[in-house]
Amino acid sequence: MTYEANVCGAIFDFAAYLTTMDDEYTVGAQHNAARMADEVKRFLAKRGMHGNDANVFGWQDVGLPRTAEFHPDDRATDITGMER
């Protein structure tokens, strides 16, 4: 399986995990990202991972195809709201 397939699979798996939650909340630019970061940590723990060494910014630089819409500034902020 390719690296791209693994990344895509993880994203879909996380999205599916979110749909199993009992409560709901809004995610967006006007909302605190800490809750989403907490859900990512819970998801990783359920999958037996900790995420301490997550390659938050560099994973896009390992040979995934670029699209015309991609711009490096698209990844200027990580999930915790910290600027790179």
Report on this model:
The protein has one domain (about 5-75). It is an all-alpha fold. The mean pLDDT is about 80. It is built from two helices and no strands.
Task: Describe the secondary structure blueprint for this structure.
Elements: H1 3-19, H2 34-46
Q: What attributes does this structure have?
A:
84 residues, mainly alpha, 2 helices, 36% helix, 0% strand
How much helix is in the residues?
Answer: 25-40%
SS elements, strand count = 0
Shape estimate: globular
Order of helices and strands: HH
Number of domains: 1
Number of helical segments with 4 or more residues = 2
Rg is: 14 Å
What percentage of amino acids are in beta strands? under 5%
The largest sheet, given as strand count, sense and whether it forms a barrel, is:
none
Low-confidence stretches: none
In brief:
By secondary structure, this protein is an all-alpha fold. It has helices at 3-19, 34-46.
